[in-house]
Write a structure and sequence with these properties.
This protein has 298 residues and is an alpha+beta fold. Helix content is 39%, strand content 21%. It has helices at 14-30, 40-43, 69-76, 86-93, 95-104, 120-130, 154-163, 210-240, 275-282, 287-296; strands at 2-7, 34-39, 55-58, 113-115, 135-139, 149-151, 170-174, 179-188, 191-194, 198-199, 246-253, 259-265. Strand 8 (179-188) and strand 9 (191-194) form a beta hairpin.
């Protein structure tokens, strides 16, 4: 079998994409698969039409890997590929749209205000009207670690918008008190399965605050009692957004036990130390065995 791993050395998440692609390639090689890795960062998407392979495996984070462009190009050229469709990929990358889909399914999400980066007056007005002491401002469509700003003042809001001026749209959400967890969903034994949640570390940009840290610690202690609920909710999100083969979903677990959906990655990080593979380890599932099941069930 010939499998082509598609990655990119361009973009804000190039290092993550390359690390993920390297690990995926190694796992496939261990299965005896003939692996070719293609970097479309320099060659461009048009180069995909000239490639021949039994299966294509996009391993690119952010644009264009999770925007649907890669998937659309593969589909138009009649190529079979692993992962979600072009439509679903684009839907997941657009955080506001993904939340709309989940909201319609009764999944709890943070309210958001969406605007252009230049519409700072509207952004400031929305911040003041919200009555929130803290807010998070970030791009609508980007990787989960790109352009995240924690704001407490009008000045913070304006500065955040200035820093995101190169993005088409930004969104503002209320700050969520609690502990952030990541849940991987994938196919195991032919069945879509949510893996055990992994607690995410405190974001490096998060300002020190006794209340924030106290509520985070309190919520983290409650995690073992809510693991099954979190996994069930992750599976709901995965299915609501019509993801295929895998996804990684972020939630905020509050001290009350309530769970709020934050965002989803249609192509999770696949490096050795990624949340996805840490979840496999908690499931006592060897990465090579997982890859074998993924390919066999494709």
């Amino acid at each position: 079998m010939n499998i082509t791993v598609i990655t990119s050395s361009d973009g804000d998440e190039a290092s993550s994409s390359l690390a993920s692609a390297e690990n995926v390639g190694k796992l496939l090689s261990n299965l005896g698969v003939n692996v070719t890795t293609v970097d479309v960062g320099g060659a461009g998407l048009d180069s995909l039409r000239f490639l021949k392979s039994d299966i294509f495996f996009p391993v690119m984070h952010g644009f264009p890997g999770e925007s649907g462009k890669i998937q659309d190009e593969l589909a138009r050229n009649g190529h079979r590929y692993i992962g979600s469709s072009a439509r679903v990929s684009a839907q997941c990358l657009d955080k506001s749209l993904a939340k709309d889909v989940c909201r319609a399914q009764g999944i709890r999400v943070f309210p958001e205000f969406v605007c252009r980066p230049r519409d700072q007056d509207a952004l400031v007005t929305a911040f003041r009207a919200s009555g929130q002491r803290e807010a998070v401002v970030k791009p609508v469509s980007s990787g989960s670690s790109i352009g995240v700003n924690f704001c407490r003042t009008v000045e913070d809001i304006v500065q955040a918008a200035d820093g995101l001026f190169n993005f088409d749209w930004l969104m503002m959400e209320p700050f969520g008190f609690g502990v952030e967890v990541s849940v991987a969903v994938t196919v195991i034994g032919g069945t879509e399965t949510a893996l055990p949640p992994i607690v995410r570390p405190v974001h490096p940009k998060l300002p020190f605050d006794v209340q924030i840290l106290s509520e985070r610690e309190s919520a983290a202690k409650r995690l073992p009692f809510f693991e099954k609920d979190i996994q069930n909710e992750a599976l709901r999100v995965h299915k609501a957004l019509e993801c295929r083969h895998f996804s990684k979903i972020d939630f905020m677990l509050h001290d009350s036990g309530d769970l709020t959906f934050i965002e989803i990655d249609s192509i999770p990080g696949f490096s050795k130390d990624s949340y996805f593979f840490r979840s496999l380890k908690r499931k006592n599932l060897d990465p090579i065995d997982w890859m074998r099941m993924l390919i066999n069930n494709f």
